[in-house]
Amino acid sequence: DGGITQSPKYLFRKEGQNVTLSCEQNLNHDAMYWYRQDPGQGLRLIYYSQIVNDFQKGDIAEGYSVSREKKESFPLTVTSAQKNPTAFYLCASSYAGGRHEQYFGPGTRLTVT
Amino acid sequence: GIQVEQSPPDLILQEGANSTLRCNFSDSVNNLQWFHQNPWGQLINLFYIPSGTKQNGRLSATTVATERYSLLYISSSQTTDSGVYFCAVNSNSGYALNFGKGTSLLVTP
Fold it and tell me: In chain B, at which end, N or C, are there fewer CB atoms within 10 A of the end residue's CB?
């Protein structure tokens, strides 16, 4: 089955701890993205990567970090510097940036207390 | 950056009714997608439609790129159509999607 997987589905952490969210795709897509969704809002871009070993900040990158060591994987780390980390995080991928259709994973709900 | 406005923000319909959702955007785009977000949060791709008209069953969409708007039509609505519908665009100079705030649709029996 081709698609995008995210794990875990739910994640609970104490304030001050870093946490890493997993995103894997087997669609042979070059571009991958991380978005954040807050209640009642649309999605906002955190980071994107158009190719392995390269990534760019999105609109709300502060307090987050990413890596892209493999084409299939684009993990997101939520650091203790992120002031309001509780949110729904969605990963997406596409054949290339921008103009190509994007497909989304099922998301990870992060709660930090 | 590019602005995306969706209307109406909320919509309640009785089963069997038709509806039109609108998406206005502020700049030229090379990608426009409509999504349905189900109660579990999954974003389901409905249409990839930077221009023109497409139909898929009871759903259809039209994008008039020169006038910077897109419409999503839902006919003979069913309770399973409930959820949030998002329009998202990529500007000609951008690399990722910019989302509207969505239209929350509730279809009652």
Answer: C
Interface membership of A43 toward B (CB under 8 Å): yes
Q: How many residues does chain A have?
A: 113
| B59 CA: distance to closest CA in chain A (Å) | 18
Q: Please tell me if residue A2 touches chain B, with a CB cutoff of 8 Å.
A: no
CB contacts < 8 A, A to B, total 66
When CB atoms are compared, the residue of A35, A43, A99 closest to B30 is A99
Kindly give the confidence (pLDDT) of every residue in chain A, 113 residues in length, as a single tens digit, with 9 standing for 90 and above.
Answer: 669 999 999 999 999 999 999 999 999 999 999 999 998 888 999 999 999 999 999 999 999 999 999 999 999 999 999 999 999 999 999 998 778 999 999 999 999 99
Q: Return the closest-CA partner of residue A92 out of B54, B76, B80, B95.
A: B95
B16 and B34 Cβ atoms separated by less than 8 Å: no
Strand segments (E) across A52-113 = 54-57, 64-66, 76-78, 87-94, 103-104, 108-112
SS3 at position A9: coil
Contact B96 A45 (CB under 8 A): yes
Q: Is A54 on the interface with B (CB under 8 A)?
A: no
Phi, psi of B18 (to 5 degrees): -105, 155
